Amino acid sequence: SRPTVMAADSCSWFSALAVGVSLLKCFFISAYRSTDFEVHRNWLAITHSLPVSRWYYENTSEWTLDYPPLFAWFEFGLSQVARSFDANMLQVENLNYASPATVLFQRLSVIVTDVVFIYAARECCRCVREPKGSRDILSQPSFVLAVLLLWNFGLLLVDRILQLCLCIKLPASARRRRERHPGKGALLFAFLLNLKHIYLYVAPAYGVYLLRSYCFTQDNKDGSIRWSSFSLLRLLALGAIVTSVCALSFGPFIAMGQLPQVLSRLFPFKRGLCHAYWAPNIWALYNVLDKTLAVLGVRLKLLEEAELPLASMTGGLVQEFEHSVLPSVTPAVTLVCTLLSILPAAASIWLRPRGARGFLRCLLLCALGSFMFGWHVHEKAILIAILPLSILAVENREDAGIFLILTTTGHYSLFPLLFTPAVLRGFCSILWRLSTCWGWLPWRSPVRLSSRCRRGSRGCPSSPCW
């Protein structure tokens, strides 16, 4: 039977899923709070109480403002509402301030802004094709995808408990449904990048794909690039879009001569190779190997313990450290390793663009490569790979199997962030139930993306799926 796009009557079950997950998040309003709660309270105070010229210099708290200016303006907007809840939270000197009204505002601010993510998830679901005549809701690809996105365990854990507002930034990369407007996609991704610079991880995928599929207007018969079809006008248009957004974000600070200070906050290389809680990547294994070699060297009397550097890498602090036996890793080394890891994906999408599906795979590989080899990677960055993989998981069974492995292990790696027994037990139960759901739902009905979301080699990833 001919597949059809998600029917209009699906609003009922989609709304039920959205409302259900929002109610679940409300139950955690009074739950455990990490240091990230104080981070965002401090940023609210900085942007509300201080002039713009002091935002990136303020250091009363150790949690200094280290997000791009566009996100700082977002915090400024939130602070205008926050003063109606408790004006004391907006005082910079009120460190670790957490009144009930402050907690309520911080939690609600994230839950309310979920509407952006819900809209993006809705548009993602509209890009999958439904088997005609299918009445089993559990076999409808759009329903499966809605569950995987709206009920993503990582967003339940990180957004509600750690207050990182990922639900605001991730859907900001959503593209317009109309594929003939790639400029809108570039505009939205530029805004996303200026909200949270962690999305530099996937910038190569966006850049290479748009350059290849938009700036080169034609291919040869064998699918290879036709160099004569290059459009300088389209390249300039994309450049103007990105430059305009960056100018809007960084312009005031450039005018004040503060760009070096802002960049030093955005890229604090002195924080060390690994985060205080190591992300499960190659550098965590490198640290373990170095520690193992150091212990063996001392026991075998090949090394003098007094001459070895202190094992600060295991101290749970954010700082620079030196390895004891293996060569110490510099930011330049991690950059080279990251570029080498994503180069095959970027080269593949350049040589043979495969429409939206090819772009999505490139995006996924860029996210994973950066997670595995990047400098000072946060454990929560794995969500940048898990969410796009959700879309591929409803496309075929092989990707569904990969999704089950990555999402279960990736979300499990976030558990050390929750060290209170009550919260840990609750989220263990949620993860177990959702993992069972993830392992079953995507296998119900492997589907293909609708024709408007996969246009072959000339397609553009302008749908909110991407």
UniProtKB/TrEMBL annotation:
One of its GO terms (molecular function) is dolichyl pyrophosphate Glc1Man9GlcNAc2 alpha-1,3-glucosyltransferase activity. Pfam families: Alg6_Alg8. It is a multi-pass membrane protein. Its main location: endoplasmic reticulum. Keywords: Endoplasmic reticulum, Glycosyltransferase, Membrane, Transferase, Transmembrane, Transmembrane helix. One of its GO terms (biological process) is protein N-linked glycosylation. Pathway: Protein modification; protein glycosylation. The chain crosses the membrane at residues 12-32, 142-162, 186-211, 232-255, 332-351, 358-377, 402-424. One of its GO terms (cellular component) is endoplasmic reticulum membrane. InterPro entries: Glyco_trans_ALG6/ALG8 (IPR004856). Its EC number is 2.4.1.-. It is found in: Endoplasmic reticulum membrane. The keyword Manganese does not apply. The keyword Membrane applies. It is an enzyme of class 2 (transferase). Belongs to the ALG6/ALG8 glucosyltransferase family. This is Alpha-1,3-glucosyltransferase. It comes from Astatotilapia calliptera.
